[in-house]
Amino acid sequence: MEQTGPLTNKRLRTPRAAAVAGILFSGLLIAVLLLFLSAVPKDALDEGAWLSAGLERVVLAINLTPFAGVAFLWFIGVVRDRLADAEDRLFATVFLGSGLLFLAMMFIAAAVFGAIVIVHVARPGNLADSAAFALARAFAYTIVNIYALKMAAVFMLITSTIAVRTAFVARWMAAPGFAMALFLLFAGQWFDWSFVVFPLWALLISVYILVANFERTPAR
Prior knowledge:
single chain, disordered N terminus, elongated, mainly alpha
Protein backbone atom coordinates (compact mmCIF):
# COMPACT_ATOMS: atom_id res chain seq x y z
CA MET A 1 0.00 0.00 0.00
CA GLU A 2 2.87 2.39 0.71
CA GLN A 3 4.07 2.21 -2.94
CA THR A 4 0.68 2.78 -4.59
CA GLY A 5 0.67 6.56 -4.26
CA PRO A 6 4.16 7.27 -5.68
CA LEU A 7 3.72 4.80 -8.55
CA THR A 8 0.37 6.31 -9.51
CA ASN A 9 1.74 9.82 -9.33
CA LYS A 10 4.69 8.81 -11.52
CA ARG A 11 2.37 7.37 -14.16
CA LEU A 12 0.37 10.58 -14.17
CA ARG A 13 3.36 12.91 -14.28
CA THR A 14 5.48 11.18 -16.94
CA PRO A 15 3.14 11.61 -19.95
CA ARG A 16 2.47 15.21 -18.94
CA ALA A 17 6.21 15.89 -18.65
CA ALA A 18 6.78 14.38 -22.10
CA ALA A 19 4.03 16.54 -23.56
CA VAL A 20 5.30 19.75 -21.98
CA ALA A 21 8.88 19.04 -23.06
CA GLY A 22 7.74 18.24 -26.61
CA ILE A 23 5.68 21.41 -26.84
CA LEU A 24 8.58 23.52 -25.57
CA PHE A 25 10.95 21.85 -28.03
CA SER A 26 8.53 22.36 -30.92
CA GLY A 27 7.95 26.02 -30.15
CA LEU A 28 11.62 26.80 -29.65
CA LEU A 29 12.81 24.90 -32.74
CA ILE A 30 10.13 26.49 -34.92
CA ALA A 31 11.24 29.91 -33.64
CA VAL A 32 14.89 29.07 -34.37
CA LEU A 33 14.11 27.84 -37.88
CA LEU A 34 11.91 30.83 -38.71
CA LEU A 35 14.59 33.23 -37.51
CA PHE A 36 17.30 31.50 -39.53
CA LEU A 37 15.18 31.07 -42.66
CA SER A 38 13.98 34.67 -42.59
CA ALA A 39 17.54 35.99 -42.31
CA VAL A 40 19.85 33.51 -44.04
CA PRO A 41 19.20 32.33 -47.62
CA LYS A 42 19.10 28.57 -48.11
CA ASP A 43 22.15 28.66 -50.33
CA ALA A 44 25.45 27.04 -49.47
CA LEU A 45 27.24 29.74 -51.46
CA ASP A 46 25.43 32.87 -50.25
CA GLU A 47 27.52 36.04 -50.18
CA GLY A 48 26.86 36.94 -46.55
CA ALA A 49 24.41 39.82 -46.97
CA TRP A 50 22.66 38.59 -43.81
CA LEU A 51 25.69 39.61 -41.75
CA SER A 52 24.46 43.18 -41.96
CA ALA A 53 20.74 42.84 -42.71
CA GLY A 54 19.71 39.91 -40.51
CA LEU A 55 22.41 39.58 -37.89
CA GLU A 56 20.12 40.19 -34.87
CA ARG A 57 17.77 37.38 -35.92
CA VAL A 58 20.67 34.99 -36.38
CA VAL A 59 22.11 35.83 -32.96
CA LEU A 60 18.71 35.28 -31.33
CA ALA A 61 18.34 31.92 -33.10
CA ILE A 62 21.81 30.85 -31.95
CA ASN A 63 20.95 31.71 -28.34
CA LEU A 64 17.62 29.84 -28.47
CA THR A 65 19.13 26.65 -29.89
CA PRO A 66 20.56 25.28 -26.58
CA PHE A 67 17.16 25.68 -24.88
CA ALA A 68 15.49 23.79 -27.72
CA GLY A 69 18.12 21.08 -27.30
CA VAL A 70 17.51 20.73 -23.56
CA ALA A 71 13.75 20.43 -24.16
CA PHE A 72 14.39 17.77 -26.84
CA LEU A 73 16.60 15.77 -24.47
CA TRP A 74 13.89 15.92 -21.82
CA PHE A 75 11.33 14.80 -24.40
CA ILE A 76 13.47 11.79 -25.33
CA GLY A 77 14.03 10.89 -21.69
CA VAL A 78 10.43 11.00 -20.58
CA VAL A 79 9.22 9.12 -23.68
CA ARG A 80 11.70 6.33 -22.85
CA ASP A 81 10.49 6.39 -19.26
CA ARG A 82 6.90 6.15 -20.50
CA LEU A 83 7.78 3.05 -22.54
CA ALA A 84 9.45 1.42 -19.50
CA ASP A 85 9.56 -2.40 -19.87
CA ALA A 86 7.95 -2.24 -23.32
CA GLU A 87 11.11 -0.66 -24.74
CA ASP A 88 12.91 -2.89 -27.24
CA ARG A 89 16.71 -2.66 -27.24
CA LEU A 90 17.05 -2.45 -31.01
CA PHE A 91 14.44 0.27 -31.43
CA ALA A 92 15.64 2.05 -28.30
CA THR A 93 19.17 2.22 -29.71
CA VAL A 94 18.04 3.72 -33.02
CA PHE A 95 15.57 6.03 -31.24
CA LEU A 96 18.19 7.39 -28.85
CA GLY A 97 21.02 7.42 -31.38
CA SER A 98 19.13 9.28 -34.10
CA GLY A 99 17.81 11.81 -31.60
CA LEU A 100 21.24 12.52 -30.15
CA LEU A 101 22.87 12.72 -33.59
CA PHE A 102 20.20 15.17 -34.76
CA LEU A 103 20.76 17.30 -31.68
CA ALA A 104 24.55 17.20 -32.01
CA MET A 105 24.36 18.31 -35.64
CA MET A 106 22.03 21.18 -34.80
CA PHE A 107 24.43 22.32 -32.08
CA ILE A 108 27.38 22.09 -34.46
CA ALA A 109 25.57 24.13 -37.11
CA ALA A 110 24.59 26.76 -34.52
CA ALA A 111 28.20 26.87 -33.31
CA VAL A 112 29.44 27.42 -36.87
CA PHE A 113 27.03 30.34 -37.30
CA GLY A 114 28.11 31.65 -33.90
CA ALA A 115 31.76 31.54 -34.96
CA ILE A 116 30.91 33.41 -38.17
CA VAL A 117 29.12 36.10 -36.16
CA ILE A 118 32.02 36.48 -33.69
CA VAL A 119 34.59 36.87 -36.46
CA HIS A 120 32.35 39.29 -38.36
CA VAL A 121 31.86 41.49 -35.29
CA ALA A 122 35.60 41.47 -34.59
CA ARG A 123 36.56 42.13 -38.22
CA PRO A 124 33.58 43.70 -40.02
CA GLY A 125 33.77 43.71 -43.79
CA ASN A 126 36.65 41.25 -44.04
CA LEU A 127 34.83 37.93 -43.66
CA ALA A 128 32.18 37.69 -46.37
CA ASP A 129 34.64 37.52 -49.26
CA SER A 130 37.00 35.07 -47.59
CA ALA A 131 37.46 31.36 -48.24
CA ALA A 132 36.92 30.70 -44.52
CA PHE A 133 33.41 32.16 -44.69
CA ALA A 134 32.56 30.12 -47.80
CA LEU A 135 33.83 26.92 -46.14
CA ALA A 136 31.98 27.54 -42.85
CA ARG A 137 28.77 28.46 -44.64
CA ALA A 138 28.89 25.38 -46.89
CA PHE A 139 29.65 23.17 -43.89
CA ALA A 140 26.67 24.51 -41.91
CA TYR A 141 24.39 24.10 -44.93
CA THR A 142 25.49 20.52 -45.53
CA ILE A 143 25.24 19.33 -41.93
CA VAL A 144 21.76 20.80 -41.46
CA ASN A 145 20.09 20.15 -44.79
CA ILE A 146 21.51 16.68 -45.42
CA TYR A 147 22.66 14.97 -42.23
CA ALA A 148 20.53 16.55 -39.50
CA LEU A 149 17.47 16.40 -41.75
CA LYS A 150 18.00 12.68 -42.34
CA MET A 151 18.48 11.98 -38.63
CA ALA A 152 15.24 13.82 -37.87
CA ALA A 153 13.50 11.60 -40.43
CA VAL A 154 14.97 8.44 -38.88
CA PHE A 155 13.86 9.62 -35.42
CA MET A 156 10.32 10.12 -36.72
CA LEU A 157 10.32 6.72 -38.43
CA ILE A 158 11.50 4.82 -35.37
CA THR A 159 9.16 6.70 -33.02
CA SER A 160 6.22 5.91 -35.31
CA THR A 161 7.30 2.25 -35.39
CA ILE A 162 7.47 2.20 -31.59
CA ALA A 163 3.97 3.73 -31.50
CA VAL A 164 2.68 0.85 -33.64
CA ARG A 165 4.40 -1.78 -31.49
CA THR A 166 3.67 -0.39 -28.02
CA ALA A 167 0.73 2.04 -28.47
CA PHE A 168 2.39 4.65 -26.24
CA VAL A 169 0.31 6.98 -28.41
CA ALA A 170 -2.63 6.06 -30.62
CA ARG A 171 -1.49 3.75 -33.43
CA TRP A 172 -3.22 5.89 -36.06
CA MET A 173 -0.67 8.64 -35.29
CA ALA A 174 2.03 6.48 -36.82
CA ALA A 175 0.62 7.08 -40.33
CA PRO A 176 1.32 10.85 -40.47
CA GLY A 177 4.65 10.18 -38.75
CA PHE A 178 5.73 7.74 -41.47
CA ALA A 179 4.53 10.09 -44.23
CA MET A 180 6.35 13.12 -42.80
CA ALA A 181 9.50 11.11 -42.18
CA LEU A 182 9.63 9.75 -45.73
CA PHE A 183 9.13 13.26 -47.07
CA LEU A 184 12.08 14.55 -45.03
CA LEU A 185 14.22 11.53 -45.88
CA PHE A 186 13.84 11.66 -49.65
CA ALA A 187 12.65 15.17 -50.56
CA GLY A 188 13.22 17.45 -47.58
CA GLN A 189 16.46 18.99 -48.79
CA TRP A 190 14.73 20.35 -51.92
CA PHE A 191 12.17 22.46 -50.04
CA ASP A 192 13.15 25.58 -48.10
CA TRP A 193 10.68 25.12 -45.23
CA SER A 194 10.76 21.32 -45.00
CA PHE A 195 12.60 21.24 -41.67
CA VAL A 196 9.55 22.77 -39.96
CA VAL A 197 7.84 19.38 -40.48
CA PHE A 198 9.89 17.84 -37.65
CA PRO A 199 8.88 20.23 -34.83
CA LEU A 200 5.28 20.21 -36.10
CA TRP A 201 5.26 16.41 -35.83
CA ALA A 202 6.70 16.62 -32.29
CA LEU A 203 3.99 19.16 -31.44
CA LEU A 204 1.30 16.79 -32.74
CA ILE A 205 2.63 13.92 -30.61
CA SER A 206 3.00 16.12 -27.54
CA VAL A 207 -0.48 17.63 -27.74
CA TYR A 208 -1.98 14.17 -28.14
CA ILE A 209 -0.11 12.87 -25.08
CA LEU A 210 -1.17 15.89 -23.03
CA VAL A 211 -4.84 15.63 -24.00
CA ALA A 212 -4.90 11.86 -23.45
CA ASN A 213 -3.25 12.28 -20.05
CA PHE A 214 -5.84 14.79 -18.88
CA GLU A 215 -8.65 12.54 -20.09
CA ARG A 216 -7.26 9.59 -18.09
CA THR A 217 -6.45 11.55 -14.93
CA PRO A 218 -8.88 10.41 -12.21
CA ALA A 219 -11.03 13.04 -10.56
CA ARG A 220 -10.07 13.96 -6.99
